[in-house]
Model the fold of this input.
Amino acid sequence: MRCMICASSMVPSMAKDFGGVYGLTEVSYERCVACGFVQSSTHAKMPLAEWERLNREFHASYQGSGVAEGDPRWMERIETQARVMTRLVRDGILPGGPWVDYACGDGELADRLERNGLDVTRYDRYMRTGVGRYLEKEELLKSGKKWEVVINTSAFEHFLSMEPIEEIFELARDGVLAVHTLVSERVPTDALWFYLFPVHVSFFTNAAMQILFERYGFASSIYHVEARLWFWFRHRDRAFERYCASHSAAGDTLVWRDAFVDYWKE
Ligand SMILES: [Zn+2]
Done:
């Protein structure tokens, strides 16, 4: 396998036996020798229909329940993300709209943002269980609309190819990308690592994120630690650095960098 981020070669990294849950047995993961990105080679080789079945069954197990399997802080994190984004609009750091939430799932985050007065369009290729406006893919890509903010939370870890990632960056070509996924300095090799869910297939390192950050033309970023949310900007504004330094508080930590904020060093 070749690394989908930097095209370097991948070597075996770890394996996990899922014991038949959702039809998964042993899953093998490979690591990029250059950027450290890790991907499941088992999922990468899976027929598309099987991959889609796995996702349907996994997500059906919790969607709409307010609880995500293996992620008990899911709802709390979404509340924090909505609060932080609303505040950053109020303080002039984020533009006010229109926004799109790409891979929004049942729209929990978009719902909250709309209640706070933001104009958020929903897009999800697979899941449309929630209420509200969902855009079709053709409309999303052909609308020619300038999205001021493109939100993408808890999705990068599900992507097996660059196609959806490239789509996200294309949508955010003139705007800000708000992204949440787990990023580490070095992806663990422990089969007991909590993040090895049946549907998590891609694991990003700081180096991999920095490659994407540069390749798609971003210049600076802000990380909100408690919301686990990065904001990638097209411009470099020292006023943002000052804002983060002066507006961070207990439970509300903002970090600015003229690169991808590599906050997690473990
Ligand atoms: Zn790589």
